C-alpha cells in the first residue's frame, strides 16, 4: 500500500486483517490527502475477497506493467508515478533477497508465516505474507478512510447496560446503552466483529433488565 507520493507507510503484514483494518484506516487518514493505493499482481489479486473488491464496489485500476499502472493511478491522484514504481521494485528486491536467505519459508495466508522482506533493505519492512508484485496483470484500488463508530461512548453498569449518571455515578433506571453507544471497550485498535459481539452481549443484558423492570422486579439481570 502506497500513498499519493508513491511511498509505503505501514507494515502490511504486521497482523491479520481483522486486527489491522482499523489501524490501517487511521494510517491512511494521516497520509497526504487522506488516501492511498492498494496494489497487487495477478497472484495477490486472486486472494482478494470478492464482496469487497468486485467492480461494482470499487474502481479497479488494471495494467500490464507497473509503469502503466503508475500512469493510470496518476490520472486519479497519484502525484509521483516514478517513485511509485521505484517503491514497488525496491519492495520486490527485498522480497526476493529474503527468500534467498530463507527458502524454507512458505506463504500461508492462514498463519503469520514469517515470509517477510529483507530487514536491511527497506526502511519499513513487511513482516508476513510478503509476496512479490511482479506478475501481470497488476491491480490497484484507491482507498480512503471511513468511520464505523467511535471508540468513546457512555459509561454503563456492566451487568445491566444501564447508563451511569455522571452526577451520581449510579445507574439511571430504565436508560440503557449498547452497541456503538457503549464506551470503555476499545482503545487504540478494534478487532473486527467485536462490535457486533458487544452489541449482542450488552443488548441481551439490557433486554433482560428491562424485562425484569417491566415485570416489577428490580436488580441486575443474572444471565
TrEMBL record:
The keyword Oxidoreductase applies. Its cofactor is FAD. GO terms for molecular function: oxidoreductase activity. The keyword Flavoprotein applies. Keywords: FAD, Flavoprotein, Oxidoreductase. Residues 39-194 form the FAD-dependent oxidoreductase 2 FAD-binding domain. Gene3D superfamilies: FAD/NAD(P)-binding domain (3.50.50.60), Succinate dehydrogenase/fumarate reductase flavoprotein, catalytic domain (3.90.700.10). It holds the Pfam family FAD_binding_2. This is Fumarate reductase/succinate dehydrogenase flavoprotein. It comes from Macrophomina phaseolina (strain MS6).
Amino acid at each position: 500500500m502506497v500513498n499519493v507520493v508513491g511511498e509505503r507507510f505501514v507494515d502490511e503484514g504486521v497482523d491479520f486483517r481483522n486486527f489491522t483494518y482499523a489501524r490501517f484506516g487511521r494510517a491512511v487518514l494521516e497520509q497526504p490527502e487522506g488516501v492511498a493505493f492498494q496494489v497487487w499482481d495477478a497472484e495477490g489479486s486472486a486472494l482478494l475477497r470478492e464482496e469487497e473488491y468486485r467492480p461494482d464496489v470499487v474502481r479497479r485500476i488494471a495494467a500490464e506493467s507497473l509503469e502503466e499502472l503508475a500512469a493510470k493511478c496518476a490520472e486519479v491522484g497519484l502525484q509521483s508515478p516514478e517513485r511509485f514504481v521505484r517503491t514497488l521494485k525496491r519492495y520486490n528486491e527485498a522480497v526476493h533477497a529474503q527468500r534467498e536467505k530463507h527458502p524454507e519459508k512458505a506463504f500461508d495466508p492462514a498463519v503469520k508465516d514469517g515470509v517477510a522482506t529483507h530487514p536491511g533493505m527497506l526502511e519499513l519492512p513487511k513482516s508476513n505474507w510478503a509476496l512479490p508484485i511482479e506478475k501481470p496483470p497488476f491491480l490497484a484500488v484507491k482507498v480512503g478512510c471511513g468511520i464505523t463508530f467511535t471508540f468513546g461512548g457512555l459509561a454503563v453498569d456492566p451487568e445491566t447496560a444501564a447508563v451511569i449518571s455522571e452526577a451520581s455515578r449510579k445507574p439511571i433506571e430504565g436508560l440503557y446503552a449498547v452497541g456503538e453507544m457503549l464506551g470503555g471497550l476499545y482503545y487504540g485498535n478494534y478487532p473486527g466483529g467485536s462490535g457486533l459481539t458487544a452489541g449482542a452481549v450488552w443488548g441481551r443484558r439490557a433486554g433482560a433488565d428491562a424485562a425484569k423492570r417491566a415485570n416489577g422486579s428490580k436488580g441486575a439481570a443474572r444471565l
